[in-house]
């Protein structure tokens, strides 16, 4: 047993509240973190799609389907992989609906969000892979923001530790491991994932700009990056989880995410060696003025930066294919 109070000099305190009340309305900070992440992702994805030549705010039409399906599937995935919590002996099955108490899974969100995004792209005429590439860094940033909700909820922490950045958890706590003494510190897995995700945002933006990855290959980089980190963080978490062949279910999901990302990257590279002619499928192009005329084949560079001469040259050489 590790008594952190005696063995470390510093630690990371957990917030003392996880919600606040406004009149009869209870606001959960976990939910605010998720909502803030969604808003930021929508705004940034809109900027990236617009720079690519899409109609401004077409991302809203896609999000109207993608976001609800992502949240629903994220909750379903969590419940299925923690079945005993909700349907085991002495459990309250109705608590499976209490999403405000925490418990959504990113891989479930990716599945539901992908289905919703595909439907939204069919609706709007946007290429699905163009949308996915525009979303990639914004999604990783949103995930980093969402992890702060776990911090406020004092959940999903890792092994006991005596490192200076150990995480303080209130005692008693429903998530407290049986047998560990009060004062034990834990690995702050939420913080590890936040740092990894923010670093991944920089990597994805740089890779997209440097190599002009399109046709879903930038999203493939996201899948590999996020999932590779998730294998590590998930492996040191101590919250209960379904174990399959000696590994937590989410570790298997992360392994699948890495494999899927690699497959998407190389299959799409082989199928589409050139640049996308347009963010729209053929026949569905947006024709409202000069925005379409200025389509930029440089892969979603920061909207605050003017296109480089190299990018302009690339646009010129790809113009016949875009007509």
Keywords:
two-stranded antiparallel sheet; 323 residues; mainly alpha
Tell me what you see in this structure.
Helices cover 56% and strands 6% of the residues. A hairpin with a 2-residue loop joins strand 1 and strand 2. The protein is built from 11 helices and 7 strands. The protein has helices at residues 4-7, 29-52, 58-81, 83-87, 106-124, 128-153, 189-211, 217-236, 249-271, 290-293, 309-318, and strands at 19-22, 25-28, 160-161, 167-168, 185-186, 243-244, 247-248. With 323 residues, the chain is mainly alpha-helical. The protein has one domain. The longest helix has 26 residues, at 128-153. It has a 3-stranded antiparallel β-sheet, with no helix packed on it. The model is unreliable at 1-8 and 290-323 (pLDDT under 50).
Strand content: 5-15%
**Spatial shape:** globular
Mean pLDDT: 87
The profile of the biggest β sheet is: 3 strands, antiparallel
What is the number of independent domains?
1
Brief overview:
Pathway: Protein modification; lipoprotein biosynthesis (diacylglyceryl transfer). It is a multi-pass membrane protein. With 323 residues, the protein is mainly alpha-helical.
